Protein backbone atom coordinates (compact mmCIF):
# COMPACT_ATOMS: atom_id res chain seq x y z
CA UNK A 1 0.00 0.00 0.00
CA UNK A 2 2.84 2.34 0.84
CA UNK A 3 4.40 1.82 -2.59
CA UNK A 4 1.08 2.34 -4.38
CA UNK A 5 0.52 5.63 -2.55
CA UNK A 6 3.92 6.97 -3.64
CA UNK A 7 3.20 6.05 -7.30
CA UNK A 8 -0.12 7.82 -7.18
CA UNK A 9 1.48 10.95 -5.65
CA UNK A 10 4.14 11.06 -8.38
CA UNK A 11 1.47 10.66 -11.04
CA UNK A 12 -0.43 13.65 -9.61
CA UNK A 13 2.74 15.71 -9.66
CA UNK A 14 3.23 14.99 -13.37
CA UNK A 15 -0.36 15.97 -14.18
CA UNK A 16 -0.02 19.18 -12.20
CA UNK A 17 3.20 20.16 -13.98
CA UNK A 18 1.64 19.49 -17.38
CA UNK A 19 -0.84 22.34 -16.90
CA UNK A 20 -0.21 25.60 -18.82
CA UNK A 21 1.37 28.54 -17.04
CA UNK A 22 0.05 32.09 -16.72
CA UNK A 23 1.03 32.94 -20.30
CA UNK A 24 -0.31 29.72 -21.72
CA UNK A 25 3.16 28.12 -22.05
CA UNK A 26 3.92 24.50 -21.12
CA UNK A 27 6.53 24.25 -18.32
CA UNK A 28 9.64 22.26 -19.11
CA UNK A 29 9.72 18.86 -17.38
CA UNK A 30 13.27 19.48 -16.20
CA UNK A 31 12.06 22.29 -13.89
CA UNK A 32 9.69 20.32 -11.66
CA UNK A 33 11.12 21.72 -8.46
CA UNK A 34 10.70 25.33 -9.57
CA UNK A 35 7.12 24.63 -10.68
CA UNK A 36 6.17 23.83 -7.08
CA UNK A 37 7.02 27.40 -6.06
CA UNK A 38 4.04 29.78 -5.80
CA UNK A 39 5.92 32.48 -7.75
CA UNK A 40 5.66 30.48 -10.98
CA UNK A 41 1.83 30.52 -10.68
CA UNK A 42 0.65 27.59 -12.73
CA UNK A 43 -2.68 28.71 -14.25
CA UNK A 44 -5.92 26.74 -14.00
CA UNK A 45 -6.82 24.47 -16.85
CA UNK A 46 -8.75 25.81 -19.83
CA UNK A 47 -11.69 23.68 -18.76
CA UNK A 48 -12.10 25.99 -15.79
CA UNK A 49 -13.22 28.75 -18.18
CA UNK A 50 -10.46 31.34 -17.53
CA UNK A 51 -8.39 32.91 -20.25
CA UNK A 52 -4.68 32.58 -19.96
CA UNK A 53 -2.96 35.96 -19.66
CA UNK A 54 -1.99 37.00 -23.15
CA UNK A 55 -4.44 34.50 -24.65
CA UNK A 56 -7.99 34.95 -25.93
CA UNK A 57 -10.70 35.78 -23.42
CA UNK A 58 -13.42 33.19 -22.93
CA UNK A 59 -16.59 33.23 -20.88
CA UNK A 60 -15.80 32.49 -17.28
CA UNK A 61 -17.85 31.01 -14.51
CA UNK A 62 -18.60 34.30 -12.70
CA UNK A 63 -22.01 35.52 -13.86
CA UNK A 64 -21.13 34.73 -17.47
CA UNK A 65 -18.50 37.49 -17.62
CA UNK A 66 -15.13 36.96 -19.31
CA UNK A 67 -12.35 36.33 -16.82
CA UNK A 68 -9.17 38.36 -16.96
CA UNK A 69 -5.94 37.72 -15.08
CA UNK A 70 -4.80 40.66 -12.97
CA UNK A 71 -1.19 41.91 -13.19
CA UNK A 72 1.07 39.68 -11.10
CA UNK A 73 4.29 37.72 -11.48
CA UNK A 74 4.84 36.73 -15.11
CA UNK A 75 2.01 39.09 -16.18
CA UNK A 76 2.87 42.64 -17.28
CA UNK A 77 0.52 45.49 -16.49
CA UNK A 78 0.60 46.43 -20.21
CA UNK A 79 -0.71 42.95 -21.09
CA UNK A 80 -3.57 43.35 -18.64
CA UNK A 81 -4.34 46.87 -19.89
CA UNK A 82 -4.44 45.79 -23.54
CA UNK A 83 -6.71 42.83 -22.80
CA UNK A 84 -9.02 44.96 -20.65
CA UNK A 85 -9.19 47.53 -23.44
CA UNK A 86 -10.38 44.84 -25.84
CA UNK A 87 -13.10 43.78 -23.40
CA UNK A 88 -14.32 47.35 -22.86
CA UNK A 89 -14.07 48.33 -26.55
CA UNK A 90 -17.70 47.29 -27.12
CA UNK A 91 -19.04 48.76 -23.88
CA UNK A 92 -20.12 52.30 -22.95
CA UNK A 93 -16.61 53.17 -21.81
CA UNK A 94 -14.97 55.73 -24.08
CA UNK A 95 -11.77 57.63 -24.84
CA UNK A 96 -11.92 61.46 -24.79
CA UNK A 97 -9.10 63.98 -24.39
CA UNK A 98 -6.70 61.14 -23.43
CA UNK A 99 -9.00 60.14 -20.59
CA UNK A 100 -11.31 57.23 -19.91
CA UNK A 101 -14.86 58.60 -19.68
CA UNK A 102 -18.32 57.12 -19.20
CA UNK A 103 -21.87 58.47 -19.49
CA UNK A 104 -22.91 59.28 -15.93
CA UNK A 105 -26.30 60.48 -14.64
CA UNK A 106 -26.62 63.07 -11.90
CA UNK A 107 -29.35 63.22 -9.26
CA UNK A 108 -31.72 64.72 -11.87
CA UNK A 109 -31.06 61.86 -14.33
CA UNK A 110 -29.16 64.24 -16.65
CA UNK A 111 -26.37 62.28 -18.31
CA UNK A 112 -22.98 63.75 -19.18
CA UNK A 113 -19.55 62.34 -19.91
CA UNK A 114 -17.47 62.02 -16.76
CA UNK A 115 -13.86 61.04 -16.25
CA UNK A 116 -13.43 57.73 -14.45
CA UNK A 117 -11.38 57.92 -11.26
CA UNK A 118 -9.07 55.03 -10.26
CA UNK A 119 -11.33 54.05 -7.34
CA UNK A 120 -14.41 54.06 -9.56
CA UNK A 121 -12.53 52.15 -12.26
CA UNK A 122 -11.89 49.23 -9.89
CA UNK A 123 -15.60 48.47 -9.53
CA UNK A 124 -16.60 49.67 -13.01
CA UNK A 125 -14.68 46.97 -14.84
CA UNK A 126 -16.36 44.31 -12.70
CA UNK A 127 -19.58 45.04 -14.62
CA UNK A 128 -17.92 43.79 -17.80
CA UNK A 129 -15.35 41.19 -16.71
CA UNK A 130 -14.30 39.05 -13.75
CA UNK A 131 -10.76 39.93 -12.57
CA UNK A 132 -8.95 36.92 -11.14
CA UNK A 133 -5.59 36.16 -9.53
CA UNK A 134 -3.76 33.32 -7.79
CA UNK A 135 -4.01 32.68 -4.08
CA UNK A 136 -1.58 30.55 -2.07
CA UNK A 137 -3.10 27.43 -0.57
CA UNK A 138 -1.86 24.54 1.56
CA UNK A 139 -1.74 22.35 -1.54
CA UNK A 140 1.05 22.19 -4.07
CA UNK A 141 -0.68 24.61 -6.48
CA UNK A 142 -2.27 28.05 -5.92
CA UNK A 143 -5.96 28.39 -6.64
CA UNK A 144 -7.75 30.87 -8.88
CA UNK A 145 -9.83 33.47 -7.00
CA UNK A 146 -11.78 36.61 -7.87
CA UNK A 147 -10.05 39.78 -6.80
CA UNK A 148 -10.58 43.52 -7.35
CA UNK A 149 -7.98 45.52 -9.24
CA UNK A 150 -5.49 47.29 -6.98
CA UNK A 151 -5.78 51.08 -6.86
CA UNK A 152 -2.19 51.48 -8.02
CA UNK A 153 -2.83 49.23 -11.02
CA UNK A 154 -6.10 51.06 -11.77
CA UNK A 155 -4.26 54.40 -11.84
CA UNK A 156 -1.60 53.02 -14.18
CA UNK A 157 -4.14 51.33 -16.48
CA UNK A 158 -6.14 54.54 -16.94
CA UNK A 159 -3.14 56.28 -18.50
CA UNK A 160 -1.84 53.29 -20.46
CA UNK A 161 -1.84 54.06 -24.19
CA UNK A 162 -2.51 50.46 -25.10
CA UNK A 163 -5.68 50.58 -22.99
CA UNK A 164 -6.96 53.99 -24.10
CA UNK A 165 -6.44 53.41 -27.82
CA UNK A 166 -8.57 50.26 -27.68
CA UNK A 167 -11.55 52.24 -26.36
CA UNK A 168 -13.91 53.93 -28.79
CA UNK A 169 -13.27 57.68 -29.17
CA UNK A 170 -16.21 59.97 -28.37
CA UNK A 171 -16.42 63.55 -29.64
CA UNK A 172 -19.52 64.58 -27.72
CA UNK A 173 -22.73 63.60 -25.98
CA UNK A 174 -26.30 64.50 -27.00
CA UNK A 175 -29.35 64.70 -24.76
CA UNK A 176 -31.62 64.53 -27.84
CA UNK A 177 -31.42 62.93 -31.27
CA UNK A 178 -29.74 65.38 -33.63
CA UNK A 179 -29.53 65.29 -37.43
CA UNK A 180 -26.41 64.14 -39.24
CA UNK A 181 -25.32 63.24 -42.75
CA UNK A 182 -24.83 59.60 -43.72
CA UNK A 183 -23.36 60.07 -47.16
CA UNK A 184 -25.88 62.37 -48.88
CA UNK A 185 -28.71 61.21 -46.65
CA UNK A 186 -29.98 63.28 -43.73
CA UNK A 187 -31.23 61.39 -40.68
CA UNK A 188 -31.27 61.52 -36.90
CA UNK A 189 -28.43 59.94 -34.94
CA UNK A 190 -29.33 56.65 -33.23
CA UNK A 191 -29.52 56.21 -29.48
CA UNK A 192 -26.25 55.08 -27.95
CA UNK A 193 -22.90 55.33 -29.73
CA UNK A 194 -22.63 56.17 -33.42
CA UNK A 195 -19.22 55.03 -34.73
CA UNK A 196 -19.37 57.10 -37.93
CA UNK A 197 -19.75 60.43 -36.13
CA UNK A 198 -18.25 59.26 -32.80
CA UNK A 199 -21.21 60.75 -30.94
CA UNK A 200 -23.04 59.25 -27.97
CA UNK A 201 -26.79 59.94 -27.67
CA UNK A 202 -28.19 59.13 -24.24
CA UNK A 203 -30.66 56.25 -24.05
CA UNK A 204 -33.20 58.40 -22.19
CA UNK A 205 -33.05 61.06 -24.92
CA UNK A 206 -35.94 63.53 -24.88
CA UNK A 207 -38.42 62.71 -27.65
CA UNK A 208 -40.09 65.30 -29.86
CA UNK A 209 -42.54 65.30 -32.82
CA UNK A 210 -41.04 64.74 -36.25
CA UNK A 211 -44.01 65.88 -38.37
CA UNK A 212 -44.08 69.70 -38.00
CA UNK A 213 -44.32 71.62 -41.28
CA UNK A 214 -42.14 74.69 -41.97
CA UNK A 215 -45.22 76.95 -41.73
CA UNK A 216 -46.07 75.50 -38.31
CA UNK A 217 -42.46 76.01 -37.22
CA UNK A 218 -42.38 79.67 -38.28
CA UNK A 219 -45.76 80.37 -36.63
CA UNK A 220 -44.59 78.69 -33.42
CA UNK A 221 -41.45 80.84 -33.20
CA UNK A 222 -43.38 84.03 -34.05
CA UNK A 223 -45.84 83.34 -31.22
CA UNK A 224 -43.25 82.08 -28.75
CA UNK A 225 -40.94 85.10 -29.18
CA UNK A 226 -43.68 87.71 -29.60
CA UNK A 227 -43.41 89.34 -26.16
CA UNK A 228 -39.65 89.83 -25.97
CA UNK A 229 -38.81 93.54 -26.18
CA UNK A 230 -36.80 93.53 -29.43
CA UNK A 231 -36.41 96.81 -31.28
CA UNK A 232 -39.35 96.98 -33.71
CA UNK A 233 -37.19 97.55 -36.81
CA UNK A 234 -34.91 94.62 -35.91
CA UNK A 235 -37.53 92.17 -34.62
CA UNK A 236 -37.23 89.76 -37.56
CA UNK A 237 -33.43 89.88 -37.44
CA UNK A 238 -33.39 89.36 -33.66
CA UNK A 239 -35.69 86.34 -34.02
CA UNK A 240 -33.43 85.00 -36.76
CA UNK A 241 -30.35 85.32 -34.50
CA UNK A 242 -31.89 83.52 -31.50
CA UNK A 243 -33.17 80.73 -33.80
CA UNK A 244 -29.68 80.65 -35.31
CA UNK A 245 -28.27 80.05 -31.81
CA UNK A 246 -30.66 77.10 -31.39
CA UNK A 247 -29.82 75.76 -34.88
CA UNK A 248 -26.08 76.08 -34.18
CA UNK A 249 -26.60 73.51 -31.42
CA UNK A 250 -29.27 71.42 -33.18
CA UNK A 251 -27.47 71.20 -36.54
CA UNK A 252 -23.93 70.99 -35.18
CA UNK A 253 -23.26 67.61 -36.84
CA UNK A 254 -24.28 68.98 -40.25
CA UNK A 255 -21.30 71.31 -40.30
CA UNK A 256 -17.83 70.08 -41.33
CA UNK A 257 -15.53 69.08 -38.50
CA UNK A 258 -13.48 71.95 -37.05
CA UNK A 259 -15.99 74.55 -38.25
CA UNK A 260 -15.81 77.84 -36.36
CA UNK A 261 -19.14 79.06 -35.04
CA UNK A 262 -20.14 82.53 -33.78
CA UNK A 263 -20.91 83.58 -30.22
CA UNK A 264 -24.37 84.83 -29.33
CA UNK A 265 -25.02 87.75 -27.00
CA UNK A 266 -28.32 89.10 -25.69
CA UNK A 267 -27.74 92.63 -24.45
CA UNK A 268 -30.30 94.74 -22.57
CA UNK A 269 -30.66 98.30 -21.37
CA UNK A 270 -32.14 97.20 -18.04
CA UNK A 271 -32.50 94.30 -15.67
CA UNK A 272 -35.81 92.44 -15.98
CA UNK A 273 -35.82 92.71 -19.78
CA UNK A 274 -35.71 88.95 -20.38
CA UNK A 275 -32.12 88.67 -21.64
CA UNK A 276 -31.28 85.56 -19.58
CA UNK A 277 -34.62 83.96 -20.43
CA UNK A 278 -33.99 84.47 -24.15
CA UNK A 279 -30.57 82.78 -23.84
CA UNK A 280 -32.19 79.86 -22.05
CA UNK A 281 -34.44 78.96 -24.99
CA UNK A 282 -31.72 77.21 -27.06
CA UNK A 283 -30.00 75.90 -23.92
CA UNK A 284 -33.10 74.25 -22.42
CA UNK A 285 -34.09 72.92 -25.84
CA UNK A 286 -30.76 71.06 -26.00
CA UNK A 287 -30.15 70.09 -22.38
CA UNK A 288 -33.54 70.20 -20.64
CA UNK A 289 -32.23 72.74 -18.14
CA UNK A 290 -30.07 75.87 -18.10
CA UNK A 291 -27.36 75.85 -15.44
CA UNK A 292 -26.20 79.29 -14.36
CA UNK A 293 -22.81 80.38 -15.61
CA UNK A 294 -21.43 83.55 -14.07
CA UNK A 295 -18.26 85.15 -15.41
CA UNK A 296 -15.16 83.71 -13.67
CA UNK A 297 -13.31 86.18 -11.47
CA UNK A 298 -9.95 85.89 -13.26
CA UNK A 299 -8.27 84.42 -16.32
CA UNK A 300 -7.10 81.28 -14.50
CA UNK A 301 -10.68 80.48 -13.44
CA UNK A 302 -11.88 81.13 -17.00
CA UNK A 303 -9.38 78.57 -18.34
CA UNK A 304 -10.56 75.97 -15.82
CA UNK A 305 -14.21 76.73 -16.59
CA UNK A 306 -13.65 76.23 -20.33
CA UNK A 307 -11.62 73.03 -19.81
CA UNK A 308 -14.30 71.57 -17.55
CA UNK A 309 -17.08 72.33 -20.04
CA UNK A 310 -15.07 70.80 -22.89
CA UNK A 311 -14.24 67.60 -21.00
CA UNK A 312 -17.89 67.05 -20.01
CA UNK A 313 -18.95 66.92 -23.66
CA UNK A 314 -21.46 69.72 -23.15
CA UNK A 315 -22.14 71.72 -26.36
CA UNK A 316 -22.79 74.97 -24.46
CA UNK A 317 -20.66 77.55 -22.66
CA UNK A 318 -23.01 80.04 -20.97
CA UNK A 319 -21.94 83.30 -19.32
CA UNK A 320 -24.85 85.08 -17.68
CA UNK A 321 -25.33 88.71 -16.64
CA UNK A 322 -22.02 90.15 -17.86
CA UNK A 323 -21.35 93.67 -16.64
CA UNK A 324 -18.64 96.15 -17.51
CA UNK A 325 -15.86 95.14 -19.90
CA UNK A 326 -15.03 91.53 -20.78
CA UNK A 327 -11.52 90.83 -22.05
CA UNK A 328 -10.38 87.22 -21.81
CA UNK A 329 -7.59 85.62 -23.82
CA UNK A 330 -8.99 82.15 -23.05
CA UNK A 331 -12.46 83.09 -24.27
CA UNK A 332 -11.02 84.68 -27.40
CA UNK A 333 -9.05 81.48 -28.10
CA UNK A 334 -12.23 79.46 -27.61
CA UNK A 335 -14.12 81.54 -30.16
CA UNK A 336 -11.35 81.77 -32.76
CA UNK A 337 -10.42 78.09 -32.97
CA UNK A 338 -12.35 74.79 -32.81
CA UNK A 339 -9.45 73.31 -30.82
CA UNK A 340 -8.54 74.37 -27.30
CA UNK A 341 -5.40 73.78 -25.30
CA UNK A 342 -5.54 73.27 -21.57
CA UNK A 343 -3.50 71.75 -18.77
CA UNK A 344 -4.88 68.65 -17.08
CA UNK A 345 -5.05 69.00 -13.29
CA UNK A 346 -1.93 67.63 -11.63
CA UNK A 347 0.01 67.45 -14.91
CA UNK A 348 2.42 69.79 -16.68
CA UNK A 349 1.57 68.51 -20.17
CA UNK A 350 -0.79 70.66 -22.26
CA UNK A 351 -3.74 68.85 -23.83
CA UNK A 352 -5.18 69.81 -27.24
CA UNK A 353 -8.67 68.77 -28.25
CA UNK A 354 -11.72 69.80 -30.28
CA UNK A 355 -14.16 71.44 -27.87
CA UNK A 356 -17.45 71.71 -29.84
CA UNK A 357 -18.67 74.56 -27.59
CA UNK A 358 -21.09 77.32 -28.58
CA UNK A 359 -20.83 80.45 -26.43
CA UNK A 360 -24.02 82.18 -25.28
CA UNK A 361 -23.91 85.34 -23.17
CA UNK A 362 -26.33 87.77 -21.58
CA UNK A 363 -25.31 91.28 -20.53
CA UNK A 364 -26.36 94.75 -19.43
CA UNK A 365 -24.58 97.15 -21.79
CA UNK A 366 -21.38 95.14 -21.57
CA UNK A 367 -18.38 95.89 -23.76
CA UNK A 368 -15.88 93.45 -25.24
CA UNK A 369 -12.48 93.26 -26.83
CA UNK A 370 -12.49 93.85 -30.62
CA UNK A 371 -11.85 90.18 -31.39
CA UNK A 372 -14.78 89.02 -29.28
CA UNK A 373 -17.07 91.64 -30.79
CA UNK A 374 -16.16 90.56 -34.33
CA UNK A 375 -17.18 86.98 -33.62
CA UNK A 376 -20.39 87.72 -31.75
CA UNK A 377 -23.95 88.10 -33.06
CA UNK A 378 -25.79 90.57 -30.85
CA UNK A 379 -29.48 90.85 -29.99
CA UNK A 380 -30.50 94.13 -28.40
CA UNK A 381 -33.43 94.28 -25.96
CA UNK A 382 -34.90 97.64 -24.94
CA UNK A 383 -37.25 97.88 -21.97
CA UNK A 384 -39.15 101.18 -22.00
CA UNK A 385 -40.61 101.08 -18.49
CA UNK A 386 -38.11 102.05 -15.79
CA UNK A 387 -39.82 99.55 -13.47
CA UNK A 388 -39.69 96.13 -15.18
CA UNK A 389 -42.23 94.66 -12.75
CA UNK A 390 -44.90 97.03 -14.14
CA UNK A 391 -44.58 95.69 -17.67
CA UNK A 392 -47.77 93.98 -18.90
CA UNK A 393 -47.08 90.51 -20.31
CA UNK A 394 -50.04 88.57 -21.69
CA UNK A 395 -48.33 85.20 -21.65
CA UNK A 396 -45.61 85.17 -18.96
CA UNK A 397 -42.69 82.87 -19.71
CA UNK A 398 -40.19 81.29 -17.33
CA UNK A 399 -37.92 78.23 -17.24
CA UNK A 400 -40.90 75.92 -16.68
CA UNK A 401 -42.65 77.43 -19.70
CA UNK A 402 -39.60 76.81 -21.90
CA UNK A 403 -39.37 73.23 -20.61
CA UNK A 404 -43.06 72.70 -21.44
CA UNK A 405 -42.43 74.05 -24.95
CA UNK A 406 -39.24 72.04 -25.44
CA UNK A 407 -40.83 69.43 -27.71
CA UNK A 408 -42.31 72.13 -29.97
CA UNK A 409 -39.00 74.03 -30.13
CA UNK A 410 -37.13 70.90 -31.25
CA UNK A 411 -39.91 69.87 -33.65
CA UNK A 412 -39.76 73.33 -35.23
CA UNK A 413 -35.98 73.20 -35.64
CA UNK A 414 -36.23 69.76 -37.23
CA UNK A 415 -38.92 71.05 -39.62
CA UNK A 416 -36.66 73.92 -40.76
CA UNK A 417 -33.73 71.53 -41.29
CA UNK A 418 -35.89 69.11 -43.31
CA UNK A 419 -37.24 71.95 -45.47
CA UNK A 420 -33.65 72.96 -46.26
CA UNK A 421 -32.82 69.35 -47.18
CA UNK A 422 -35.90 69.05 -49.42
CA UNK A 423 -34.86 72.27 -51.20
CA UNK A 424 -31.55 70.60 -52.12
CA UNK A 425 -29.30 72.13 -49.42
CA UNK A 426 -29.00 75.62 -50.96
CA UNK A 427 -26.07 77.72 -49.74
CA UNK A 428 -26.46 81.02 -47.91
CA UNK A 429 -26.86 84.15 -50.02
CA UNK A 430 -25.28 86.43 -47.41
CA UNK A 431 -22.00 85.37 -45.82
CA UNK A 432 -20.01 86.38 -42.80
CA UNK A 433 -16.43 85.64 -43.88
CA UNK A 434 -15.47 84.59 -40.34
CA UNK A 435 -18.00 81.72 -40.39
CA UNK A 436 -18.43 80.55 -44.00
CA UNK A 437 -19.09 76.87 -43.20
CA UNK A 438 -21.52 77.84 -40.42
CA UNK A 439 -23.28 80.31 -42.74
CA UNK A 440 -23.78 77.66 -45.41
CA UNK A 441 -25.67 75.48 -42.94
CA UNK A 442 -27.34 77.60 -40.26
CA UNK A 443 -27.62 80.79 -42.32
CA UNK A 444 -28.83 78.79 -45.32
CA UNK A 445 -31.53 77.01 -43.27
CA UNK A 446 -32.88 80.35 -42.02
CA UNK A 447 -32.76 82.04 -45.42
CA UNK A 448 -34.54 79.05 -46.96
CA UNK A 449 -37.32 79.48 -44.37
CA UNK A 450 -37.72 83.17 -45.23
CA UNK A 451 -35.86 84.69 -42.26
CA UNK A 452 -33.29 87.45 -42.74
CA UNK A 453 -29.70 86.25 -42.62
CA UNK A 454 -28.30 86.34 -39.06
CA UNK A 455 -25.18 87.89 -40.64
CA UNK A 456 -27.17 90.96 -41.66
CA UNK A 457 -26.34 94.23 -39.93
CA UNK A 458 -28.98 95.61 -37.52
CA UNK A 459 -30.70 98.88 -38.29
CA UNK A 460 -29.99 100.20 -34.79
CA UNK A 461 -26.46 100.76 -33.56
CA UNK A 462 -25.47 98.22 -30.94
CA UNK A 463 -24.85 99.50 -27.41
CA UNK A 464 -22.57 96.58 -26.52
CA UNK A 465 -19.43 94.93 -27.81
CA UNK A 466 -16.24 96.73 -28.94
CA UNK A 467 -16.73 100.15 -27.36
CA UNK A 468 -14.28 101.91 -29.69
CA UNK A 469 -15.92 100.48 -32.81
CA UNK A 470 -19.41 101.35 -31.50
CA UNK A 471 -18.28 104.89 -30.78
CA UNK A 472 -16.68 105.26 -34.20
CA UNK A 473 -19.80 103.91 -35.94
CA UNK A 474 -21.88 106.49 -34.06
CA UNK A 475 -19.40 109.26 -34.95
CA UNK A 476 -19.47 108.34 -38.66
CA UNK A 477 -23.27 108.05 -38.56
CA UNK A 478 -23.46 111.68 -37.42
CA UNK A 479 -20.95 113.02 -39.95
CA UNK A 480 -22.24 114.60 -43.15
CA UNK A 481 -20.96 113.35 -46.49
CA UNK A 482 -19.06 116.06 -48.39
CA UNK A 483 -18.16 117.99 -45.23
CA UNK A 484 -14.55 118.37 -44.08
CA UNK A 485 -13.75 117.79 -40.40
CA UNK A 486 -10.63 118.91 -38.59
CA UNK A 487 -9.63 116.98 -35.47
CA UNK A 488 -11.12 119.71 -33.26
CA UNK A 489 -14.44 119.32 -35.13
CA UNK A 490 -14.45 115.56 -34.52
CA UNK A 491 -13.67 116.19 -30.83
CA UNK A 492 -16.70 118.48 -30.56
CA UNK A 493 -18.90 115.97 -32.38
CA UNK A 494 -17.70 113.14 -30.12
CA UNK A 495 -18.34 115.20 -26.97
CA UNK A 496 -21.81 116.20 -28.20
CA UNK A 497 -22.78 112.52 -28.54
CA UNK A 498 -20.86 111.50 -25.42
CA UNK A 499 -18.39 109.30 -27.32
CA UNK A 500 -14.85 108.36 -26.25
CA UNK A 501 -15.30 110.20 -22.93
CA UNK A 502 -12.26 108.42 -21.48
CA UNK A 503 -10.19 110.22 -24.17
CA UNK A 504 -11.86 113.52 -25.11
CA UNK A 505 -13.71 114.21 -21.87
CA UNK A 506 -17.03 116.10 -21.79
CA UNK A 507 -18.43 119.28 -23.34
CA UNK A 508 -16.79 122.37 -21.89
CA UNK A 509 -13.54 120.63 -20.97
CA UNK A 510 -11.51 122.84 -23.37
CA UNK A 511 -8.71 121.76 -25.68
CA UNK A 512 -7.19 118.29 -25.47
CA UNK A 513 -3.87 117.99 -23.69
CA UNK A 514 -0.93 116.33 -25.56
CA UNK A 515 -1.72 112.88 -24.13
CA UNK A 516 -5.39 113.13 -25.15
CA UNK A 517 -4.48 114.38 -28.65
CA UNK A 518 -2.11 111.45 -29.09
CA UNK A 519 -4.74 108.88 -28.03
CA UNK A 520 -7.48 110.42 -30.16
CA UNK A 521 -5.13 110.64 -33.15
CA UNK A 522 -4.28 106.97 -32.75
CA UNK A 523 -7.99 106.11 -32.62
CA UNK A 524 -8.68 108.03 -35.85
CA UNK A 525 -5.70 106.40 -37.60
CA UNK A 526 -7.02 102.98 -36.62
CA UNK A 527 -10.21 103.60 -38.62
CA UNK A 528 -8.79 105.68 -41.49
CA UNK A 529 -9.74 104.23 -44.91
CA UNK A 530 -12.08 101.75 -43.25
CA UNK A 531 -15.56 101.16 -44.71
CA UNK A 532 -18.66 101.72 -42.57
CA UNK A 533 -22.19 100.60 -43.37
CA UNK A 534 -24.85 103.20 -42.60
CA UNK A 535 -28.57 102.58 -42.39
CA UNK A 536 -30.98 104.93 -44.15
CA UNK A 537 -34.67 104.58 -43.24
CA UNK A 538 -37.37 106.13 -45.41
CA UNK A 539 -40.83 105.22 -44.19
CA UNK A 540 -40.88 101.42 -44.17
CA UNK A 541 -37.91 101.16 -46.55
CA UNK A 542 -34.48 100.34 -45.15
CA UNK A 543 -31.38 100.96 -47.27
CA UNK A 544 -27.74 100.23 -46.46
CA UNK A 545 -25.12 102.73 -47.63
CA UNK A 546 -21.36 102.10 -47.52
CA UNK A 547 -18.98 105.00 -46.84
CA UNK A 548 -15.23 105.24 -46.32
CA UNK A 549 -13.78 107.26 -43.42
CA UNK A 550 -10.91 109.03 -45.16
CA UNK A 551 -8.02 111.35 -44.39
CA UNK A 552 -8.56 114.18 -46.92
CA UNK A 553 -5.51 116.26 -46.03
CA UNK A 554 -2.14 115.25 -44.59
CA UNK A 555 -1.02 118.77 -43.63
CA UNK A 556 -0.30 119.73 -40.04
CA UNK A 557 -4.02 120.29 -39.55
CA UNK A 558 -5.38 116.95 -40.67
CA UNK A 559 -8.78 116.93 -42.33
CA UNK A 560 -11.15 113.95 -42.38
CA UNK A 561 -14.35 113.21 -44.29
CA UNK A 562 -16.66 110.54 -45.71
CA UNK A 563 -16.55 109.14 -49.24
CA UNK A 564 -19.67 107.36 -50.50
CA UNK A 565 -18.96 104.07 -52.27
Write the layout of secondary structure elements.
Layout lengths: L1 H16 L14 H4 L31 E3 L7 H12 L5 E3 L2 E7 L5 E5 L2 H7 L5 E6 L7 E4 L4 H8 L2 H4 L3 E2 L2 E5 L2 E4 L2 E4 L3 E3 L4 E8 L7 H11 L10 H16 L12 E6 L6 H13 L11 H14 L3 E7 L2 E2 L2 H8 L2 E5 L6 E5 L3 E7 L2 E2 L1 H5 L1 E6 L17 H6 L1 H17 L13 H13 L18 H11 L7 E2 H10 L4 H4 L9 H14 L2 E9 L2 E13 L5 E6 L1
Parallel strand pairs: 1-5, 2-7, 8-12, 13-18, 13-20, 14-18, 15-19
Antiparallel strand pairs: 2-3, 3-4, 5-6, 9-10, 11-12, 16-17, 21-24, 22-23, 23-24
Helix pairs in contact: 3-5, 4-5, 7-14, 8-9, 8-15, 9-14, 10-11, 14-15
Concise structural overview:
Helix content is 34%, strand content 22%.
Notes on the structure:
Helix 4 (118-124) packs across helix 5 (151-158) and helix 14 crosses helix 15. By secondary structure, this protein is an alpha/beta fold. It folds into three domains: 2-169, no CATH class; 214-384 and 391-448, Rossmann fold; 467-564, no CATH class. 34% of the residues lie in helices and 22% in strands. The chain is elongated and about 105 Å long. The chain has 19 helices and 24 strands. The strands form eight sheets. A four-stranded mixed beta sheet has the order 4-3-2-7, with no helix packed on it. Strands 14-18-13-20 form a four-stranded parallel beta sheet. Strands 21-24-23-22 form a four-stranded antiparallel beta sheet. The model is unreliable at 1-61 (pLDDT under 50).
Amino acid sequence: MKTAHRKSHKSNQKQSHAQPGPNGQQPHTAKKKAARSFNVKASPTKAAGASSPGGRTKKGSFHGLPEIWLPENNRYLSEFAAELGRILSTQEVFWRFDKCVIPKADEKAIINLAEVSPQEFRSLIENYCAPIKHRRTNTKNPEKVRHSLATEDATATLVDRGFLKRLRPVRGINQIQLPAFYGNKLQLLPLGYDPQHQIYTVHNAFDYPKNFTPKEAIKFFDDFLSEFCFFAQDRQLSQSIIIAAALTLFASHLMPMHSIRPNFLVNANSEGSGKTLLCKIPIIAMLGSAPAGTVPKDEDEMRKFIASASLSGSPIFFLDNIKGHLNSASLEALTTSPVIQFRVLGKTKLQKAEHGLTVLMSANRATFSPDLRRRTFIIELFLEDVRPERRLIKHPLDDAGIINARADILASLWALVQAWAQAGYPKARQLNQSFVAWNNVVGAILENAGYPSPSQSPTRMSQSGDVELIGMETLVDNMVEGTSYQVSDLVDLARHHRLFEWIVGNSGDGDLDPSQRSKFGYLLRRFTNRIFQLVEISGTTINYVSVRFSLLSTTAKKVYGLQKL
